[in-house]
Amino acid sequence: MKVVTVVGARPQFIKAAPVSRSLRRRGTEILVHTGQHYDPSMSDIFFEELKIPNPDYHLGVGSQSQGAQTGEMLTKVEEVLLREKPDWVLVYGDTNSTLAGALAASKLHIPVAHVEAGLRSFNRRMPEEVNRVLTDHVSSLLFCPTETAVRHLDSEGIRSGVYQVGDVMADAVQFNRKLATERSDILERLGLEPGSYLLITFHRAENTDDPERLKEIVSALNALSAPAVLPLHPRTRNKMKSDGLSFNNRFLKVIEPVGYLDMLRLESGAKKILTDSGGVQKEAFLLGVPCITMRDETEWTETVEQKTNILVGADKRKIIEGVETFGVDFSEVQPVFGDGKASGRIVDRLWQDG
Fold first, then answer.
1. Which has the higher per-residue pLDDT, 53 or 2?
2. What is the Cα–Cα distance from 331 to 326, expressed in whole angstroms?
3. Which residues, listed in sequence order, are joined to residue 23 by a DSSP beta bridge?
4. Does the pLDDT at position 38 exceed 80?
């Protein structure tokens, strides 16, 4: 069996790594990197650290408008599929790479398997929400990380080919957590003690493309009075520059983006995490770190229900209040994202349905 895997952004590299290991023990995987994350610090280091094979195709589609980027990806992925003639196209998550891979395959009548199917924020202003909904509706196999995701699909009339397999991020964290402790010295390099600092990430369009939201978040971070480290996403850096914003907080250490092992070490050592990333919310849960999410809603509703995550939007007062008061008793938290064996279930099902 031949499977074409389409990835393009760093969360997808993390999710694809454990599945790719399982796939290649059973058949042929053709790895397509769209180039959506084209900066070496956002892409190359992840392939190296996660031991992902070099892409068979690198499409070189960089930063563009939503429509232009998706359209160019669609054209180039279609060319690959016509050449390779795979049995399945495997896509992950909710990026433009996800949608382009799914649309290209469905128009060529190649079955699509969607990992992380059924997630919903119910905010159609988010490009990620549009991408995941459309991808689910053209997929033949829908691999859901939680029962909540299964229920979302059922409510939309999608019942065939739906499987609750657990979350591949749990696989990745289990596999790489010990490796990060052994190989990453980022805490030592930054002079950080475990449990003594905040970790911050934000990059989503809803926050960076809205000048008022961006200004409010930057103002909140400048007002923090606790040690904090912020690996700054290139998108965020560029938007701040164009909006005339800057950080002026002596407690805040702004650094370049980091690789996955460094990020895992930073996450696991953090006192609390502030983020707008879906993947980081989930990693915080899996690592037992309280999470403060700078969004108005989340597709990972389980983390809020388990009271390990709070939503503060782009509200300066709520962000600071969360930093000062939010705490979690992880002894009462249920393991809702599976047992770390989702990758094997995904590959087994591909072979059974292939």
1. 2
2. 16
3. none
4. no
Query: What radius of gyration do the chain's Cα atoms show?
Result: 19
At how many degrees (to 10) do helices 168-183 and 10-24 cross? 100
Beta bridge partners of residue 5, listed in sequence order: 31, 90
Catalytic residue among 114, 152, 203, 233: 203
CATH number of the structural domain 2-167+338-353: 3.40.50.2000
Query: Beta-carbon neighbour count of residue 252 at 10 Å?
Result: 17
What are the residue boundaries of the structural domains of the chain, listed by start? 2-167+338-353, 174-325
Q: CB atoms < 10 A from the CB of 62, how many?
A: 13
pLDDT digit string, tens, across residues 148-169: 999 999 999 999 999 999 999 9
Q: Assign 42 a pLDDT band (cuts: 50, 70, 90).
A: low
Residue bearing tokens 């769209």: 34
Phi/psi of residue 274, each to 5°? -110, 130
Structure-token match 């930063």, residue found: 63
Among 3.90.79.10, 3.30.420.40, 1.10.760.10, 3.40.50.2000, what is the CATH number of 174-325?
Answer: 3.40.50.2000
3-state helix, strand, coil in the chain (%, to 5): 50, 15, 35
Question: Is 58 among the residues known to form the active site?
Answer: no
* More confident call, 137 vs 46: 137
State CA 308 to chain mean position distance: 18
Tokens of 305: 């229900």
- Spatial neighbors of 19 by CB under 8 A, at least 6 apart, are 5, 90, 115, 168, 171, 343, 346, 347
Q: Which residues contact 71 (CB under 8 A, 6 or more apart)?
A: none
Helices (H) and strands (E) in the chain, counts: 16, 13
Query: 124: exposed, middle or buried (C-beta count within 10 Å: 0-12, 13-18, 19+)?
Result: exposed
pLDDT at 316: 98
